[in-house]
Write a structure and sequence with these properties.
This protein is an alpha/beta fold. Helix content is 25%, strand content 30%. The chain has 4 helices and 9 strands. The strands form 2 sheets. The protein has a 6-stranded mixed β-sheet with strand order 4-3-2-5-6-7, with helices on both faces. It has a 3-stranded antiparallel β-sheet with strand order 1-9-8. β2, α2 and β3 form a beta-alpha-beta unit. The longest helix has 18 residues, at 18-35. The protein starts with 10 loop residues before the first strand and ends with a helix. The mean pLDDT is 92. Bound molecules: inosinic acid (IMP) and magnesium ion (MG).
């Protein structure tokens, strides 16, 4: 592991290394550039806060090979507690501009139940985007329970709560460059 941060001591095991993440992002960007060869520009919509690291790295990877990219940010909150989500979504920060006629790619950190995403896709379609696809860095097994089409997926991971690379536990661990599982002792500290 290349990194040496305060958080390393709280991690039980690493799920995806920094190198694996960066290699996968280059691969996803290459695939998307090929699929969007007919498109003159792409609008990336990042769902804050979890997808911020992925948005930053993925947009730069696209920028090296693809058409011009524009960045939009949304913040939503699913009314849920602790480590699960409910599917009832509230917009905390909306899009800054009209997306009608635009080719939108939603940049997501992780698809867990898929409830947040299925709501978001309905919302973006209702704003008349020309196309809406999803790129998610991570996906958990439960995702198959909700019929949501995620065209681009980085890694399928086990059904464990993970942190790092944007993902938090109680707003901590987002700055980690890799993805890992916390030690049980971390939860016991509460
Ligand atoms: P979903 O609606 O169940 O798909 O969950 C969506 C959101 O829950 C994700 O975008 C994350 O922000 C958060 N989430 C889901 N699983 C995890 C996890 O393992 N660690 C941290 N956050 C998670
Ligand atoms: Mg998220």
């Amino acid at each position: 592991m290349a990194s040496q941060g305060w958080y390393d001591a709280d991690i039980d095991h690493v799920i995806i290394t920094e190198e694996q993440i960066q290699a996968k992002i280059a691969e996803l960007a290459k695939q998307i550039v090929a699929d969007y060869a007919h498109v003159d520009r792409i609008l990336l919509v990042c769902v804050l806060k979890g997808a911020l690291m992925f948005m930053a790295d993925f947009s730069r990877a696209l920028g090296q090979q693809g058409p011009p990219v524009e960045l939009e940010f949304m913040a939503v909150s699913s009314y849920g507690q602790g480590t699960s989500s409910s599917g009832v979504v509230r917009i905390l920060k909306d899009l800054d501009r009209d997306i009608a006629g635009r080719h939108v790619i939603v940049v997501e950190d992780i698809i867990d139940s898929g409830l947040t995403l299925s709501w978001l896709l309905r919302y973006l379609h209702s704003r008349n985007a020309a196309s809406v696809e999803v790129v998610a860095l991570l996906r958990k097994p439960d995702a198959i329970k909700v019929p949501v089409t995620v065209r681009y997926v980085g890694f399928d991971i086990p059904n464990e709560f993970v942190v790092g690379y944007g993902l938090d536990y109680a707003e901590h661990y987002r700055e980690m460059p890799y993805v890992g599982v916390l030690k049980a002792a971390v939860y016991a500290r509460e």
